[in-house]
Amino acid sequence: MIGRHALGRTAAGRAAGGCFVPRPIRRRDDGGVSGLRLEDVHKAFGDHPVLSGVDLEVPAGAFTAILGPSGSGKSTLLRLVAGFERPDRGTVSVGGRQVEGAGRYVPPEERRIGYVPQEGGLFPHLTVEANVGFGLRRSERRSRATELLEGVGLADLGGRYPHQLSGGQQQRVALARALAVRPEVVLLDEPFVSLDANLRASVREDVRRVLKEAGATAILVTHDQDEALSLADLVAVLRGGRIAQCASPHDLYRSPIDADMARFVGDANILSGVLGPGSVRTALGTLAGRLRDGQLPSGSEVAVLVRPEQIEVSAGPPGGAGSEGLAGRVVWSGYHGHDAVTRVRLLGNGGESIVVRTMGDVQPAVGADVSVEVRGPVVAWPAADRRAGPRSPDPISNGALQEGTTAT
Hints:
Blueprint: H1 8-16, E1 36-45, E2 48-58, E3 63-67, H2 74-82, E4 89-94, E5 97-101, E6 104-105, E7 113-116, H3 128-133, H4 138-151, H5 167-180, E8 185-189, H6 197-214, E9 217-222, H7 225-231, E10 234-239, E11 242-247, H8 249-254, H9 259-265, E12 269-276, E13 279-282, E14 285-291, E15 301-306, E16 311-315, E17 326-335, E18 339-346, E19 353-359, E20 369-374, E21 378-382, E22 405-407
Parallel strand pairs: 3-9, 3-10, 7-8, 8-9, 14-21, 17-22
Antiparallel strand pairs: 1-2, 1-4, 4-5, 5-6, 10-11, 12-13, 12-15, 13-14, 15-21, 16-20, 17-18, 17-20, 18-19
Helix pairs in contact: 4-5, 5-6
């Protein structure tokens, strides 16, 4: 049986996708250079290792998110790239130029990097225009600041001071200031974390648009999965001090490298299954699917990922009017407005419990008999990758709500 820890570094590189680079790092096939490249980067604080061999290559002009839980080393990685911290080992290259490693160190002000911190970091005693032009030659400050403020939609606010701006406006000014020096790379350290939900969505879309129009290579660090998946061209997940997987948002969500990754990037049902030719047999029936990596003989035990939105729920038991699939009973339901999350216990097949996501106006009542059916293919890993049960963001998962309740 092939386990995930036996895949080796080369297989891991294939699994991680476009921005993960196994050693040795090579020049790009098109003869160009990367926007950012890190090789075997290590960093510890005292006896506490934070980064343990990070390999990452970001294409020029790409918007890449570094995703990880709090304390995983995301901000430390950003500070190493910026030059605010020094790695214990490894190399960092920006725009094809090595700025760290092998006895070379380029100070932050010479790296051509724009940096947007969590709170914007604007100078309170300077006007908006002066903040944007700070660090530029006097001759170009006004023209460059005017150009960038127009780009971020704040052309009429150049004479204001930071305290006269909203949180979203301050972040736009911080982005304009970061772009003013025409950087090779723009680093964004969770810049939307202090904004309310509605403002956060609009500001981050504006930030993405401005960065794309500028053609900038951007690195966003975040612990917000939705933010990473919706904004980035590539998402690199930092886990255990290394880049565990790097791929497009679609590939990361649909084809995670293991069960832990599947749960981290979204809600997941991880079921036991038996591998067949082009299919897997599970408590939800025989489903079209494949083994993500490697090869296993038919009949091998596997772990199977079924996303909650892949499961269709119909009122009534199987065999009713227009109702097919497997019989189940709703044991919990949570309403979120735009959608609803429901926990269904299958009747038979060992009473497996699954999480289902439906449109908000299709919320089965607790205790209702339903039929469930899976749409679309599934992905599987060797059985050793299965961990306990489905994960749900709702309170039932930690015992706050019991079966037979509804949350709104």
